[in-house]
Amino acid sequence: MERERLEEKIKKHAKEGKIACKQALKIAEEEGIPSRELGELLNEMKIKITGCQLGCFP
Questions:
Q1: Residue 43 domain flag
Q2: In a domain, 30, yes or no
Q3: How many domains would you assign to the chain?
Q4: Is 13 helix (H, G, I), strand (E, B) or coil?
Q5: What DSSP designation does 45 have?
Q6: I need a labelling partner for 22 at 20 to 30 A (CA). Which of 4, 10, 12, 43 fits?
Q7: How far apart, in whole angstroms, are the C-alpha atoms of residue 28 and residue 37?
Q8: Which one, of 16, 56, 20, lies nearest residue 40 by Cα?
Q9: 4-35 burial, b for 16+ CB within 10 Å, e for fewer?
Q10: Domain limits at 8?
């Protein structure tokens, strides 16, 4: 996983500092990383998860 590339992918899908849970889960799956790890990165980037389906993100 190349962090810069992943951050750019997240920024592409995040709107106004938020990203849908469904989209975040899709990114995690595409990148082959655990949802928790992606959630931690989103926290560092100050991007909030909206409409969380399963409580997967911290």
A1: yes
A2: yes
A3: 1
A4: helix
A5: T
A6: 4
A7: 8
A8: 56
A9: eebbeebeeebeeeebbbebbbebbeeeeeeb
A10: 3-50
